[in-house]
């Protein structure tokens, strides 16, 4: 589990503090930002948000909430080749669903393009930036290594006037993609490779999802990142550790411009076991058909978790459990699964569903009746419901064995078991088809053993669930499991070979109790003894309900 690397003190809500809160406390004590706390979540709209982004949202919004500050949702939309409005819309929905309250502050880095361009002109005039004609490969070859300095571009000492003219012509679209860049003039021998004349602008003749064809030069992430924070008055720019080596560059840009300079603080990104978190790899899974879209319930995307039945509360609680660390670590996915079990245990009503049915005929039972069933023993306000009982039932195939191993306490030939909320039954006869498969059980019931009646002291070890054959209805149930078979698939060279071939099992003829007929998309239930399930939003129709398994009742992967 991720550590927090900090003392156990409490934030304004009384929760355990992390090192970022300690920094903010000190800033407030010294009045560094005039008592203000302003954070942001700055996603690139080039894919759907995943669970790692959820951690960042919870952290950034949580800081603003706890210190009564402000929280921005800001799109860092500086790459028109990979960005789409679909991603923008999905990100807004996900942040809202997770509880990140940005009020009316949906902001776009692309709206600052003019200001960033004017700042680039300012740096050229100060002799701190120049237009370079080297192509991408040539820039890479002259950049140097960790042990060798880079080589200065032959275009590094162009005059201010020439650089201004070339940048203006770049903006007007006179040059093809890749033919020129605008680079900062810093230090080609710096031990920090990010300071070796980094690219600020590149030529990209692409239509932007928001700005249309107004621009054909686009700022790099390194140039835009600090500028966007500065323009918005961000006080604490919370980033993941991979941006730590970029911080000196952001500092250099802001110091040269003499503008508002937020404080950047890095924390460890979330790495989750049995999961890949790379957007590039997630996109590959989608485009090559390994999964059913970005919201496939096996995907680590927020939309995938939502469709699978996760709640925002469970994800926020997960973020609280893992804490905020200064060092990278691999977080056990069991912690995430624990969080959703813990949440649904309190809120999900218990119902009965038979996934792989075996027919049971109770030969000495006549008629029908309704039995009382508790909706949720963890929630006293959940009440109870009536479930129909008749002489023909369905039970799980796995709840009967002809030759059981030691310790099997369910139904066997000549054995007895209790039906949940109902009676004790005894298996009298086993019916098989021509292939020798068990297709039906003939049983008798003991009328004095009705659940809750207190009329019998008879005890049996096994209790199984069931549904009335006459009153149940068919539904499709999708049993989702972990997408990968190895703990750290992202570290595997041939990571696609580690996909779990059993990550999805589709059951088309599950039998459900009648109370579920009117279930709506995203309604959540505990199927007794089977796990937590959610009505699917994508494939459920008025004529057919589809249920996704959210999580099992216990960690089925435990050794």
Characterization of the model:
The chain contains twelve helices and 27 strands. The protein folds into three domains: 19-272, Rossmann fold; 279-347 and 475-551, Glutamyl-trna Synthetase, Domain 2 (Glutamyl-tRNA Synthetase, domain 2); 350-470, Ribosomal Protein L25, Chain P (Beta Barrel), CATH 2.40.240. The protein has a seven-stranded mixed β-sheet with strand order 12-25-26-27-23-24-13, covered by helices on one side. The protein is elongated. It has 559 residues and is of the alpha/beta class. Helix 7 (221-232) packs across helix 8 (247-257). It has helices at residues 19-29, 51-66, 85-98, 113-125, 136-141, 160-172, 221-232, 247-257, 279-287, 302-308, 312-322, 333-347, and strands at 38-41, 70-75, 106-108, 129-132, 181-184, 199-203, 217-219, 236-240, 263-267, 271-272, 330-331, 349-351, 353-354, 357-362, 369-374, 384-389, 392-396, 416-419, 424-432, 438-446, 463-464, 467-468, 473-480, 504-512, 524-527, 531-535, 546-551. The chain is 25% helix and 23% strand. Residues 1-14 have low confidence and may be disordered.
């Amino acid at each position: 589990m991720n550590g927090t690397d900090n003392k156990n003190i409490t934030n304004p809500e009384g929760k355990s503090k992390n090192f970022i809160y300690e920094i903010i406390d000190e800033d407030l004590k010294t009045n560094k930002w005039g008592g203000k706390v302003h954070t942001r979540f700055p996603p690139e709209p080039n894919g759907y948000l995943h669970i790692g982004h959820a951690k960042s949202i919870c952290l950034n919004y949580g800081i603003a909430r706890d210190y009564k500050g402000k929280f921005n949702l800001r799109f860092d939309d500086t790459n028109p080749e990979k960005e789409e409005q679909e991603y923008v819309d999905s990100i807004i929905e996900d942040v809202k669903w997770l509880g990140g309250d940005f009020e009316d502050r949906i902001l776009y880095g692309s709206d600052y393009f003019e200001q960033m361009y004017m700042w680039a002109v300012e740096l050229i005039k100060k002799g701190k930036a120049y237009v370079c004609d080297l192509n991408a490969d040539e820039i890479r070859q002259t950049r140097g290594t960790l042990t060798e300095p880079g080589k200065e571009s032959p275009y590094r000492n162009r005059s201010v006037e020439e650089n201004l003219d070339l940048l203006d012509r770049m903006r007007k679209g006179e040059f093809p993609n890749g033919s020129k860049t605008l680079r900062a003039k810093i230090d080609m021998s710096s031990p920090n490779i990010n300071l070796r004349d980094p690219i600020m602008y590149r030529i990209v003749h692409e239509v932007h999802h928001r700005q249309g064809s107004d621009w054909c030069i686009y700022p790099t992430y390194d140039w835009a990142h600090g500028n966007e924070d500065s323009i918005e008055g961000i006080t604490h720019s919370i980033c993941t550790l991979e941006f730590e080596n970029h911080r000196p560059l952001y500092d250099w840009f802001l110091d040269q411009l003499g503008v508002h300079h937020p404080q950047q603080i890095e924390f460890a990104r979330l790495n989750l076991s049995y999961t890949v978190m790379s957007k590039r790899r997630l996109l590959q899974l989608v485009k090559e058909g390994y999964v059913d879209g970005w919201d496939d319930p096996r995907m680590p995307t927020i939309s995938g978790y939502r469709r699978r039945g996760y709640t925002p509360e469970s994800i926020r609680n997960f973020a609280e459990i893992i804490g905020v660390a200064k060092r990278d670590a691999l977080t056990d996915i069991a912690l995430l699964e624990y969080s959703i079990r813990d949440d649904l245990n309190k809120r999900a009503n218990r119902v009965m569903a038979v996934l792989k049915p075996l027919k049971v005929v109770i030969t000495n039972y006549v008629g029908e009746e309704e039995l009382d069933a508790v909706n949720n023993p963890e929630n006293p306000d959940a009440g109870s419901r009536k479930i129909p009982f008749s002489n023909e039932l369905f039970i799980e195939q796995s709840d009967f064995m002809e030759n059981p191993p030691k310790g099997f306490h369910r139904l066997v030939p000549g054995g007895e078991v209790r039906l949940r909320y109902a009676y004790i039954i005894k298996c009298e006869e086993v019916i098989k088809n021509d292939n020798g498969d068990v297709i039906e059980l003939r049983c008798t019931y003991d009328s004095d053993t009705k659940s809750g009646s207190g009329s019998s002291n008879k005890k049996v070890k096994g209790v199984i669930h069931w549904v009335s054959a006459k009153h149940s209805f068919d539904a499709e149930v999708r049993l989702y499991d972990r997408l990968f078979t190895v703990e750290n698939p992202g570290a595997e060279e041939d990571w696609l070979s580690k996909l779990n071939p059993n990550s999805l099992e589709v059951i088309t003829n599950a039998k459900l109790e009648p109370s579920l007929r009117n279930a709506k998309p995203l309604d959540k239930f505990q199927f007794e003894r089977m796990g937590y399930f959610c009505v699917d939003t994508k494939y459920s129709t008025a004529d057919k309900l589809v249920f996704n398994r959210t999580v099992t009742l216990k960690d089925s992967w435990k050794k």
